[in-house]
Amino acid sequence: MNKNGRKWLALVLAGAMTVTMAAGCGNSEASANQDGTAGTQQAAGDSAGDGSEATGSEASGGASDDSAAAAGTAVDWDDIIDINLLFVSMGPVPTGVEAVEEEINKITEAEINTHVNMEIIEIGSYDQQVNLKLSSSEPLDLIMTMPGGPASFTNMRSQGQLQDISDLLEIYGQDILDTVGDIMAATTVDGSIYAVPVYRDLSSSEYIVMRTDVLEDLGLLEKAQNMTSMTEYEEIMDAVANSEEWSYLAPIGAGAGILIFTSGGGCIGGDSFADMTSFDMLGDTMYLVGVNPDGSDPTVQLTYASDEYRAMYEQVKDWYDRGFVYKDAQTEKATGSELIKSNVAFSFITDGEYGIADAQAQQCGMPVTCVPILSYPISTGTCTKFTWGVPSSAKEPEAAIAFLNLMYTDSRINNLMAWGIEGVDYEVTDGIAHFVEGNENPAYHMADYLVGNQFLVTPWEGAEADRREITKELMDSTPLSAYLGFSADLSSVTNELSAVNNVLAEFRPQIETGMASEEVYQDFQDKLASVGADKIVAAYQEQLNAWLAQQ
Questions:
Q1: Distance between CA atoms of 481 and 57, rounded to whole angstroms?
Q2: What gap in Å lies between CA 33 and CA 51, rounded to an integer?
Q3: What are the start-end ranges of the H helices in 346-396?
Q4: 101 or 182, which is more confident?
């Protein structure tokens, strides 16, 4: 492998494929109260009865009681207004949505004269359903955007499907602005705000996730925990593949044909973890372009034509030829964590935040060992991975923002949307949420990193009671990309984007699982060039240069 083969490329982005989203974002945060009571103003700092909530609110930068009462819950309508909210589930849609919705409305009807109709769609069909709902003008007032695809922030904004909410935030969502702060730049285009990033731990890294029981059985746990290179990872995969007891497991697996591109965009192609580099994808959900995030060189690259991507292909093809790659990776729809849970795979690669081992243990159904490969700076793509926006067709945008303000400042709303009803779907002991004994499969249980303010969600069992303070400190110390806030207008290359997307759909599953021959790889490069990928890169470069000149 050439010298570029010693590099690692981590394309910092909104998310590569929805099948691996859940793998990288499952951390539980913050202690909070959830009594569901209404009739009083209660904001992020309210006590959970154990003294931890106020601390969590302060750590998160959430609004105080006074600011929430003065700005966040002030409305200028007297009658109850109905709003329709569209939310995503990383697994099957919970059966207890209606009960949770009822508890939410006890709060919202009393405090902001708003009734929330909450619809949840499972992730596999979210893109399709969002497209159908918007194209048919179905009433929607608040919607979650996803990493990549038609329901991404970048796509929905460029298609005119999200409205400018700048003025509405000033009137009904001042607490949101105070809480999210500089991160709001990621969803601000030409001075207009089109969505609000989910306020969550943005200090993400790329990880190798491995079954702890297999490592222990083979005497490789310490070796795994101290890995510093891909060579050592390959040695572990080889040991698994050749062991008497575990040889039936695929040493590495992921779904939907995408082995290496994960929700954090890890693009593998080298050996030492210390030699990894990263690209800021400039909010591009097709992962077509990238630039060095430290600002030293603002040259936009076609990532799929880069030396790093070539090195990744060589690395993964070698794994495939050695029998390490899950045989059905090109067509498999299950996530890496689901493949481990199904006793199919030993490991996979994903992005995640602090506490990923706890989150992955839940998703994999067993203890896992997570080894960090590379840490990412906070970029536009990081912040726009999950956002909340108001569709252009919304009938009640004012009430939508008023409710969104509660989502970013009220612990009750956040806990309801994440864990359900306390005492029914979960319990809290010593500031830690957990399933009610005998009800380990409650009617409602969602992912806490999708709600408005993850920092106000009670940490789940396995996390520390002070997870809020820890993750907030980590996020505050994470460097920002030099291009945070840049967003491109790609209306001039719409045809090229469509053509490139078709090429990516055809070739990426083959290349990124190592199944593609050298001839196929070269065909991929030729087709990218023939459909005008260079015009897209040029559009990004021109606009980035103009943006930098204004800074």
A1: 26
A2: 10
A3: 356-364, 380-383
A4: 101
| CA distance between the termini of the chain | 40
Cβ atoms 199, 182 nearer than 8 A: no
* Most confident residue range from 332-341, 428-437, 478-487: 428-437
* Distance in angstroms (rounded) separating the CA atoms of residues 90 and 117: 20
Report residue 28 as tokens: 């539980």
Question: Are the C-beta atoms of residues 72 and 191 closer than 8 Å to each other?
Answer: no
Tell me if residue 494 falls in helix, strand or coil.
helix
**348: Cβ contacts below 8 Å, ≥ 6 apart:** 20, 23, 208, 209, 252, 253, 254, 262, 336, 337, 339, 340
- For residue 157, give the 3-state DSSP assignment: helix
Please give the C-alpha separations between residue 329 and each of 264, 321, 348, 378, 527, in angstroms, as whole numbers: 18, 14, 11, 30, 23
Closest Cα partner for 463 from 408, 419, 416?
A: 419
Residue type, 206: E
Residues making up the chain, counted from first to last: 551
Count Cβ neighbours within 10 Å for each residue of 138-166 and write b for 16 or more, e otherwise: eebbbbbbbbbbbbbbbbbbbeebbbbbe
- Coil, strand, or helix at residue 251? coil
Q: What is the mean pLDDT of the chain?
A: 84
Report CA-CA distances (Å) from 479 to 155, 217, 444. Answer: 26, 39, 36
Q: In this predicted structure, what is the pLDDT of residue 258?
A: 62
How many whole angstroms separate alpha carbon 127 and alpha carbon 517? 32
For the record, the structure tokens of 46 come out as 């309210």
CB 113 within 8 A of CB 75: yes
Secondary structure string (H, E, C) spanning 239-273: HHHCCCCCCCCECECCCCCCCCCCCCCEECCCCEH
Query: pLDDT (tens digit, 9 = 90+) per residue, 341-400?
Result: 999 999 998 888 888 998 899 889 999 999 998 888 899 988 998 999 999 999 999 999
pLDDT of residue 58: 38
